[in-house]
Amino acid sequence: MQKKWIFCENNNNEDVKRLAKKLNAPKIVANLLLNKGLHNSKEITQFFYPCINDLHDPYLFPDMEKAVYRVKKAIKNGERITIYGDYDVDGTTSIAILYLGLIEIIKKNKSSALIDYYIPNRMVDGYGLSQTGVEQLKKLNTNLVITVDCGINAIKEIDSINSSGMDVIVTDHHTPKEHIPNAFAVINPKLHNSTYPYKYLAGVGTAYKLLMAIYNEFGMDDEMNIMKYLDFVSMGTISDIVPLTGENRILASLGLKRLEKQANYGLSALMKLSGLNKQSIKSTDIVFKLAPRINAAGRMGSALRAVELMISNNEAQADRIAKIIYDENEKRKLIDQTTFIEACEMIEAKYQNLDDVYFIVISSENWHPGVIGIVASKIVEKYHRPTIMISFSEGEGNGSGRSIRNFDIFSALLQCENLLSSFGGHKYAAGISILPEYVEQLEEMLNQIAKEQLTKEDLLLQIKISAKLDLSEIDKDLIQWLKLFAPFGPQNMRPVFWSEKVMVVGYPYIVGNNHLKLKVMKNGNILETIGFNLGDYRDFISKGDIVNIAYTLEENTWMDKVTIQGNLKDIKLAN
Predict the structure, then answer these.
(1) Among candidate residues 308, 537, 536, 355, the one with its CA nearest the CA of residue 459
(2) Could you give phi then psi for residue 146, rounded to 5 degrees?
(3) Can you say whether the dihedral through the CA atoms of 288, 293, 295, 296 is positive or negative?
(4) What local confidence, expressed as pLDDT, does residue 395 receive?
(5) Sign of CA dihedral 365, 387, 237, 551
(6) pLDDT value, residue 428
(7) What CATH number matches the domain at 3-9+464-573, 3.30.930.10, 3.40.50.720, 2.40.50.460, 2.40.50.90?
(8) Is residue 139 packed enough to be buried (19+ CB in 10 Å), middle (13-18) or exposed (0-12)?
(9) I want to staple 433 with a disulfide (CB 3.0 to 4.6 A). Which of 172, 192, 335, 421 is the partner?
């Protein structure tokens, strides 16, 4: 696919020099900081060294006092509290921190309160707070329901809970529709009337805020308790692909450090199986190694297993559950591959001219509903168009949607609400339920909406270039500075550099599953690079070619030897 390079605007050279001198840093580092709008020492220090003290007061949420009051009342009166959460990593980590935190408070206060949790079954209940789930809550004789990572658009379901004599506290981060549910309290940074300063918390970040406020009420908000569950918070935050800015950056950064300590039996067991027991943990380790395995529990069986792993206080039990989850993920990967191939074949057969397609909608009765979200992401990566994949069973379809940079899929679905049985989500991802007779009309409407909002250029895969870099500027000192920009994720992506007119040294070759290995040189300076899934480039790149390359920089460890490696994003012939 053709890729479009988007270059950041050039910063004033004098500003770059001044900041570089002030920081005693390479000019390229000063340039990257200015690109982010960071100019003064305080801003830069807060960015480079995230601090727990820079988190906002949880009581800035409008309903936080009400929520804390209701939880305290439940604990004092010995009521049953049920945490109702989603089945992905964001949802299961949210359940884990509230469950463990509330259990601790109940024990310390010698309360007779009971606490349990409920996760909908993806195959039976679908996404979020469902009527099936409500019936289960009634059977549990619950007094107080706390939703995590769901509930903000469950108007009817929460009315049903209320009519049964239960109270509901909603904690969620998804975009609310016009009306919000009639819950006892609603904690959501995206509420239309919310004055909370940061709007992009994940579900687990929102649940963490509630727990911190409860800790404060019970006099338990010491540093140990504040830090204790940040490993879970970082996993849920990073895996849910929310912006890694502001509070999310603090939670993710400190949580990754907490994760390295392997303080939790369950996470430690899964890390060992994932080959992460002897190294520093990066955001990519969560996205590509830990999160898919935890998600596999909900995709292939029951997400209850993921929560059992996280709350386990027995090392042998944790090892056993981690192995089950690991094996489920191996099965999931095989189903992923088959589904992706089928989906690509369907797209190629269905759309004669993809240039005229702005939104892809495909469906099948043969697809496992637990994998269509992952495969939809791969379809977006390959075709660079918003995509919804729908799995039909017994006359109803459950779909997962993923989007591209300039298209808000949730807002688009709002315009098609009359065609959907239900839906929820945010700008880049959504879930839907739909009857088969409405699928064709949905696709027509979504294509029309996308066509009005997107240009042809928007449908090209875009590479945002952070700065121009000469190979002579690449050294260990630069790598150490770049580490301070981590953790990387949405709105804080790893910097992409470009180098002009470098020579291909030696013959490009393929390693692994279609990965390109390439060595380039300019003025005697050499950079080893790898291009993941860029094996097709070998057909037009030859030894001695002069090329422009776009790449990120990283350390590569092989046989205990650490070297600097470029991770190729694109190659263009210099002429």
Answers:
(1) 355
(2) -115, 115
(3) positive
(4) 87
(5) positive
(6) 87
(7) 2.40.50.460
(8) exposed
(9) 421
Distance between CA atoms of residues 532 and 50, nearest Å? 31
Domain 54-258 in this protein, CATH class: alpha beta
Q: How far apart are CA 435 and CA 390, in angstroms?
A: 10
Of 342, 97, 373, 360, the residue nearest 211 (C-alpha): 97
Residue 107 main-chain phi, psi, to 5 deg: -65, -45
d(CA 244, CA 287): 13
Q: What are phi and psi of 272, to 5 degrees?
A: -65, -45
Look-up: residue for tokens 């996205």?
Answer: 287
* pLDDT score at 121: 78
Confirm if 574 and 500 have CB atoms less than 8 A apart.
yes
Q: Where are the beta strands (DSSP E) in 408-485?
A: 422-425, 429-434, 461-465, 467-468
Using only C-alpha atoms, what is the Rg of the chain? 25
Residue 187 CA, chain-centre distance (Å), reads 20
Residue listed under structure tokens 């002069």: 546
Neighbours of 563 (CB within 10 A): 10
Total residue length of the chain: 575
Burial of residue 255 (number of CB atoms within 10 Å: 0-12, 13-18, 19+): buried
What is the distance between the terminal CA atoms of the chain, rounded to a whole angstrom?
Answer: 19
Low-confidence residues of the chain: pLDDT under 70 = 1, 123-126, 278
Q: Which two tokens stand for residue 139?
A: 């059977």
* Three-class SS state of 557: strand
- 326 CB burial (10 A radius; 0-12, 13-18, 19+): middle
Where exactly are the structural domains of the chain?
3-9+464-573, 54-258, 262-343, 351-459
Quote the strand ranges of 276-393, DSSP E: 360-364, 387-393
Closest CA to 69 of 161, 150, 131, 144: 144
Residue 143 makes CB contacts below 8 A (sequence gap 6+) with: 74, 79, 80, 81, 166, 167
| pLDDT value, residue 557 | 81
Which tokens sit at 315? 């090392």
Question: In which residue are the tokens 């090392």 written?
Answer: 315
pLDDT digits (tens, 9 = 90+) for 546-569: 999 999 999 988 877 889 999 999
In angstroms, rounded to a whole number, what is the distance separating the alpha carbons of residues 575 and 568?
19
3.20.20.80, 1.10.730.10, 3.10.310.30, 3.30.70.2210: CATH of 351-459:
3.10.310.30
CB 524 within 8 A of CB 559: no
